[in-house]
Amino acid sequence: MTKNDKQYWETKTLAEMTADEWEFLCDGCGICCLQKIEDQDTGNTTISSVSCLHLDIKSCQCKIYCNRAFINSDCIKLTPDKLEQITWLPETCAYRMIHEKKQLEWWHPLISGSPGTVHSSGISIRNKAVSGEHVHTDDIENYLL
User: pLDDT band at 91, cuts 50/70/90?
Assistant: First the structure.
């Protein structure tokens, strides 16, 4: 590949991507799997440091990924058409960056060639989150970021 060759994420819109291309865009940071609280009056969403109880916080991988929508009714499956409504995605999220026509960061696995760079760069929730297995849902507001 030469320097001028473009990658699929540079030439396709999110809606044009295949299912595999879409999945490869995920950097594995785990931020989208943190519990959120929505203010009923303002509609603003605040993210906590408590992960979904199905997230392995060491690997930042969902333990039930293939069946997540069936097992966890709160899990939101990200799709191109939902991107506009999901305002809590971090600025570092590849889906958001591509949607906003920005370049992926150096630490993204598609750029670095290693899934570990998202962790070593400090972008992921590894060693930062509390597992939802250890926090009662009524106590999540004590963990807001």
Answer: very high
